[in-house]
Design goal:
The protein has one domain: Up-down Bundle (Growth Hormone, Chain: A), CATH 1.20.1250.20. It has 18 helices and no strands. By secondary structure, the protein is mainly α. Helices cover about 80% and strands about 0% of the residues.
Length: about 425
C-alpha cells in the first residue's frame, strides 16, 4: 500500500493515498444516493398527504431504527470485517431503493409504504454508519485524520450543494421514482468499490470485553469518563435534533414560500453550499488555541440564523424577496452548523482509542438520526401551529443549550485545538488512553 509522506497533512492530503481515494469516490456515490433519497421521499410524502405531521412521521421512521441499530452496529463494527459489513448494507439499501422506485413508478405507492421502506433503510444505515466511520481511519496515517474527516464532510455537504437542486428539476420534469432509481445505482456503485478491497480483520478485542453486552457498555463508559467526549457528543445531539431538523419540514416551507419542486431543491442545495463554505472556513481553526470558542460560537450562530430563516418564511410568505432571504439564511445556518460538526468530529476521531472506535463512533453517529427524529417533534408542533413557529422554537432551545454549556463547562470553552490534538497523538504513541 502506497502512503503519502508523513509531512503531507494538507486539507486534501488524504486523497493522495490510493485506497482512501477509492473509498472516498465510492462513498460519493452512496452519499449522493442518500441525499436523493432524503429529498425524494420528503417530497413524495408531502405530495401524497399534504401534511407536515406526515413529514414528522417520516422523520421518526428515518431515525428511530437507526438509533437502535447504531448502538449494536458499533459493537459489530469492532468485531467483524467492516468491508463485508459495508458490502452487505450497501446491497440491501440498493434493493430497497429499487423497490420504492418500482412502487412509485407503477403509481401504486402509498404513504405507509414510503414510511416502511424508510424505516427499513434506517435500520440498515444504523449498521452502516459505525462501520463506515471506523473503516476509513485504517486507510490513512494519523496525521491525515483532519484531512480525511474534512473530505468525508465535504462529501455529505458538497452533495447537498447540487443534488437536491438537480433532483428537484428531475422531479419537476419526470417523477420521484427517477431519483429513487438513481439512488439505487449509487449504492450499487458503493458495493462494487468495497468489493475491490481486501478483507480487513476486526480490531483486537481484549478477552475481558468479549461479551457483546459488556462491549456495548464500555463505549458509554468511555464517553462518560472523558468530559470532552461527553460534552461534545451531547452538544452534537442537540445541534442535530434542534438545529438541523428544520430540513425535514422543507417541503412545507417551500409551499409557504410559493415555490415548487425546483424551489424545494434549491432550498436544500443552499444548505449544502453553506455547509461546504463552513467546512473550508473551519480548517485553519483545527489547531487554533481558540478552538473551544469556535465550538461554542458556531452552533449559537447557526441557531440565530435559523431564527432569521423562520422569520423570513413567516413574515414574507409567497414573496420573491422572502424566498431569496430564506435561501441566504438557510445557507448561513448550514455554514455555522458545519463548522461545529467538522471541528468536533476531528477532535473525537483523533482521541478515540482504536479498540473502541466502532462503539464510540456508533454512539456519535446517532446524531445523524436525530435530524429526522427532531423533524417528528417539529412536525407535531407545526401541525398545531405552523412550520416557522415549530422550527423557531427548536432554534431557541439550541441557543439555550449552547449558552448553558458555555457557562458551565469552561474546560470546553477553553479548548486549545493544537494542544488537544497533540495530547491525543502522544497517548496513542505510548499506548495510553488519555
Amino acid at each position: 500500500m502506497t502512503r503519502p509522506s508523513a509531512g503531507d497533512s494538507s486539507r486534501f492530503g488524504a486523497l493522495r493515498l490510493a485506497p482512501f481515494r477509492r473509498f472516498w469516490l465510492g462513498s460519493a456515490a452512496s452519499v449522493g444516493a442518500f441525499q436523493l433519497l432524503i429529498m425524494g421521499q420528503g417530497w413524495l410524502v408531502y405530495e401524497l398527504s399534504g401534511s407536515p405531521l406526515q413529514l414528522g412521521y417520516l422523520g421518526a421512521a428515518s431515525s428511530i431504527p437507526t438509533i437502535a441499530a447504531a448502538l449494536v452496529g458499533g459493537v459489530i463494527a469492532d468485531r467483524v470485517d467492516r468491508r463485508r459489513m459495508l458490502i452487505a448494507t450497501s446491497s440491501i439499501i440498493a434493493g430497497l431503493l429499487a423497490l420504492l422506485a418500482l412502487l412509485d413508478g407503477a403509481g401504486v405507492v402509498r404513504v405507509w409504504q414510503v414510511l416502511a421502506i424508510a424505516a427499513s433503510i434506517a435500520l440498515i444505515l444504523g449498521l452502516d454508519f459505525p462501520s463506515r466511520q471506523s473503516f476509513f481511519p485504517s486507510l490513512i496515517r494519523r496525521e491525515h485524520m483532519m484531512s480525511a474527516v474534512a473530505l468525508n464532510s465535504i462529501l455529505w455537504q458538497g452533495s447537498r450543494m447540487f443534488l437536491p437542486a438537480l433532483g428537484g428539476m428531475v422531479i419537476a420534469l419526470t417523477d420521484t421514482w427517477v431519483v429513487f432509481a438513481a439512488g439505487a445505482l449509487g449504492f450499487v456503485a458503493m458495493t462494487r468499490v468495497m468489493a475491490s478491497f481486501a478483507p480487513t480483520p476486526a480490531a483486537d478485542v481484549p478477552l475481558a470485553m468479549e461479551h457483546s453486552g459488556r462491549q456495548f457498555v464500555d463505549g458509554f463508559r468511555f464517553i462518560a469518563s472523558h468530559r470532552m467526549f461527553a460534552v461534545l457528543i451531547l452538544l452534537t445531539y442537540a445541534a442535530a435534533f434542534f438545529g438541523n431538523s428544520y430540513i425535514q419540514l422543507m417541503p412545507a416551507f417551500t409551499r409557504l414560500l410559493g415555490t415548487g419542486e425546483a424551489g424545494y431543491g434549491f432550498l436544500l442545495s443552499a444548505t449544502g453550499v453553506g455547509a461546504v463554505i463552513g467546512n473550508l472556513i473551519v480548517a485553519p481553526w483545527q489547531r487554533s488555541p481558540r478552538l473551544g470558542r469556535l465550538l461554542m460560537a458556531a452552533p449559537l450562530g447557526g441557531a440565530t440564523m435559523l431564527i432569521m430563516f423562520n422569520l423570513c418564511v413567516a413574515l414574507l410568505p409567497g414573496q420573491t424577496i422572502g424566498y431569496v432571504l430564506a435561501l441566504g439564511c438557510a445557507m448561513l445556518t448550514a455554514m455555522c452548523m458545519s463548522m461545529y460538526f467538522v471541528a468536533s468530529m476531528t477532535l473525537l476521531q483523533l482521541a478515540v482509542p482504536d479498540a473502541l472506535r466502532g462503539r464510540v463512533m456508533g454512539i456519535y453517529t446517532i446524531c445523524f438520526s436525530l435530524i429526522p427524529l427532531g423533524g417528528l417533534l417539529a412536525g407535531v408542533v407545526a401541525a398545531a401551529t405552523s412550520p416557522p413557529i415549530a422550527a423557531g422554537l427548536n432554534a431557541c432551545v439550541l441557543a439555550a443549550v449552547v449558552v448553558l454549556i458555555a457557562l458551565t463547562q469552561p474546560s470546553i470553552r477553553r479548548l486549545d485545538g493544537g494542544a488537544t490534538a497533540q495530547v491525543a497523538l502522544d497517548s496513542r504513541t505510548s499506548g495510553r488512553v488519555s
